[in-house]
Structures are given as structure tokens and as C-alpha cells.
Amino acid sequence: MASAGLKIVRRNFLKIGAAGAIVPANFASAGDRQPSAGPFDAVKDSPDYLAAAKEAARWIRSAESRTDGGGYWLPDPDHPEKTATVSLPNGFYSGGAGIVLFFLQLADATGDDSYIEDAKRGGDYLVRSWRESMASNPAQLSYYSGLAGTMFGLIELWKAIRAPSYRDAALQAAKALISAARPMGVGIEWGGPCGMSGDAGTLLCLLHLLDTWGDRSVRDAAIGAGARLIERAEPDPRGGLRWQGFPPALMGAPEGTYWPNFQLGTSGVAFALARLAHRTNDPRFLAAAKAGALNLERIAAVEGDAALVPYREPDPSPIYYLGYCGGPAGTARLFYELYRITKEDHYLAWTERLARGIMESGIPEHQTPGFWNVACQCCGSAGISDFFLGLWTATKRPEYLAFARRVGSQLLSRAVDLDGKGYRWYQAYTRVKPWEVTAETGYMIGAAGIGASFVHLHLAEQGRYRMPAFPDNPFPTSSA
Predict the structure, then answer these.
(1) Which DSSP symbol is given to 386?
(2) Which residues pair with 308 in a beta bridge?
(3) What confidence score (pLDDT) does residue 332 get?
(4) Which residue in 33, 25, 9 sits closest to 367, CA to CA?
(5) Count of beta carbons in the 10 Å neighbourhood of residue 131
(6) How many Cβ atoms sit within 10 Å of the Cβ of residue 366?
(7) What is the mean pLDDT of residues 420-447?
(8) N or C: which end of the chain has fewer CB within 10 A?
(9) pLDDT band at 107 (very low <50, low <70, confident <90, very high)
(10) What backbone torsions phi and psi does residue 377 show, to the nearest 5 degrees?
């Protein structure tokens, strides 16, 4: 049954891409579907995911620049003139904070303290330089691209090492972050986009800080940010609320373009409000989060027991992204967070419906317009693998672990090491510019996040899966 306002023809669902291109897809009704059989299903011996993670670390190490105050990593070693790609050099998306987090995870999985030393050098550099990074671009404050992500990395480093300098720097960064907010409407905002790439992501990092070190000023700021996010919502005539999470002009899109998914739109904002509701027991935040979920249900393309949400509206050639930033690997997190809070089966059903949208698309054996030449955590294979591992820990369904392994095996087959420095992954990060192919080091965009996904797969196969409590992760962080 198609959702309101959409008429889905079975042979066309998920198969029509940009310019009407036909994309291979395995899609059948619930009654006649057979288990998919790809080349990775026949692999009986597990790939050595941990070795792959170590190889990724070896390449990242080759890109390190050391200073008297610590170390940092070139974001794009083939172009050493670049100081950052998507974020500040100290940020989480493509900067040092995310790479520190990868080394911490690898140290935990291997027991090799040399990775701790890598993380400490990166952390020392964050402690020394976060203020000058903020001064160079005070608009960069969010989880993905700036100060909030740096703060998150320092919190996690303190948890692992307990060095007071990391705690002090995280608290100082939090104070600067709160001071940078401005009163607006019924609450506060930071003057940028309201989506996960802006204020919603910053709010999540404040909640992460609150869970680590309780502080009234942090709680008050989080509540003020949540109140302002509700105020910025727009009713949708199809039902529920939606958020214009990112200005179209910044994406080179026509005025009025709407992105509903996690990084740029409604699902990310609603997730942050759901997490805030859980932390404060304030019903207005939960009501807004549910209204956001309702809007996504109403605009989703649904067939049988699978669904996908369009990448953007309007779009003359509907494209369904599959990854974290603009697809189910991110958007389904809202529904699982609501299930975790409310225990309403409806939200778990939608979580799994979106997961099946990925599974029925034909990946990883085939590319689709929403799963192009991309490997990273943001919009590619690494983020999809981690999403299915999270869903596996939550539901204990073996098919989710099996799918994560298939995606991981495909990802491992794409590793490149032509110069002997270690594994990296070349990808066209920008879908509409397939000729721009790069290999990067960062967490959301490059080898650090891909390596972390291999760490998680290795631990899952060893029966000891665990990962950090990311601010945007609603799933259990351990298989225990």
C-alpha cells in the first residue's frame, strides 16, 4: 500500500533513478520474496575485518603532521594543501576529533596501546588549538562541522584516558558553545541551519555532555535550543511537522527545496527533540518528535513491508538515498529512538520497514542512484553496515548481521593500497560530481569511519560488539 499522495507501481519502485535510468533492484512482495543470494553470501570464512581496520590506521598515520603541541592529520593526503574539507580541522566530520575516536576504538579492540598514543597526540592538538579554530570561523559550531564535534571527541578521549586536560578543554568548549548561542523567539539558536548539520546536532552534543557531567547551564541551554527548534517547525498539509533543516541556497538548490532525512532535515531535528524529551520528560518535545515522524510516514514510498523516504522534494526524478545523511541508515534512527522511549510497536515496525527498503534495493552487489561510488559513514557502505549492526543488537535478528557482513565485504573489496602506505577508499563524495574522486582520512567522510566500521564488524563476529555512545545513535552500544 502506498503512502498518502503517492502511487507506487511495483516494477518502478526503487528502479527509476536520475534521468530515468533503470537500476537493478531485488524487490518482491512479502509473499513471494526469496532470500537474496549474492556473491558474499557464499563466503564461509570471515574476512579479516580487524586487519582491514589496522591497514586504514596505517594509512591515516602516514598522513599525520606532528607539532610540539600534538598531532593532526591531513584530511586529503593527495592534496596536502587542504586544511579541511567538510569541517574545521578540529571537527568530527573530516577533522581530528573523529580520527581520535577511531584510534580509541581500535586500541580497545586490539589492546595495542600505540593507538592510544595516536589518540593522545590528536587530543593534545585539540586542547591546544580549538580556540583558534573557532576564532577563524565562529560560524562553525555544530556536531558535524565544528566546536560541538570537537567537544564530543574530547569527552570520549577523557572517558578513555581520564587525563584532566581533556575534561577541562571539553568543559571550556561547552562554555564557549553556550555563550555563542543567542536568544531567539522562545528559546536560543546558534544562527545557522536547524538540522542535524546545525542546531539539532549541537543540541545532541550538549545532551551528551549532560549525560557525562551534569550541569544546570547545559540543561537550560539544551531546553532553550529545543524550544526554538519546535518554533521553527512548519505544519505539512499531508500531516505532521517538518523542518527546513538546511538553506537551499547553500546546497545550490532552488528556493523551496526540502530535505526530509537525517543530516539536512526533519528526521534529524525530530531525533534531537526525542532525545531531549527522554532526558527532560518534557511532553512538548516528544509531541514534536512524533509529529516529525508522522510527516516522514506520510511522504514515504511504501511497498509491502519496505519503505524509503525521498532524498528531497520536489525532485523531477525521485532519488532515494540509502546511507546515513539522506537515507534510511539515518532516518530510521528517529523511529527507533521513539520506540525506545515509548515502547510503541508502530515505531519499531517503521524502523524495520526502512531497513528493508535498503535490503530490497539490490545493494551492495549493485549501485543505485542513491548508492553511488561512495564508501564512507556519511552516505556510503560504512554507515549502512553500522546501521545494520545497531539494528542487529537491538532486535537480535541474524539477517541484519548477515546484511552488515555483505556490505562490509563489498566495502573491503574496494580498499586501495598502491603505494604501500595502507588502505584508503577513493570515492565520489559529491553524487552530482562523479568526476571528483578523493580518498580522505576523516570519520564521516573517509578512512577513519570506514576503519571503525570494520572494528565493529570484527567485534560482532567475536561476540563482543561494542562502540562509543555517539550522540546520534539510539541503538544498544554493546551486544552483551
Answers:
(1) H
(2) 301
(3) 98
(4) 25
(5) 15
(6) 13
(7) 94
(8) N
(9) very high
(10) -65, -35
* φ, ψ (nearest 5 deg) of residue 2: -80, 155
Q: What is the pLDDT of residues 10-45, one digit of tens each?
A: 233 343 333 323 233 333 333 333 344 344 343 445
- For 226-280, where are the E strands, in sequence order? 234-235, 241-242
Torsion angles phi and psi, residue 247, rounded to 5: -65, 125
* Distance from chain centroid for Cα 411: 17
Torsion of CA 53, 144, 313, 320, to 10 degrees: 10
Measured CA to CA in angstroms, residue 5 lies from 36, 239, 301, 310 at distances of 31, 11, 10, 13
Helix, strand, coil percentages for the chain (3-state, nearest 5):
50, 10, 45
Residue with cell 584510534: 103
pTM for this predicted structure: 0.90
Burial (Cβ within 10 Å: 0-12, 13-18, ≥19) of residue 268:
buried
C-alpha cell at 165: 586536560
Report the distance separating Cα 176 and Cα 178, nearest Å.
6
pLDDT at 132: 84
pLDDT category of residue 139 using cuts at 50, 70 and 90: low
Half-sphere exposure (Cβ direction) of 210: Cα atoms closer than 13 Å: 21
CA 121 vs. chain centroid, Å, equals 25
Give the tens place of pLDDT for each residue, 232-282.
999 999 999 999 988 888 888 889 899 999 999 999 999 999 999 999 999
Write the CA distances from 383 to 56, 113, 274, 347, 469, integer angstroms: 16, 27, 22, 21, 15
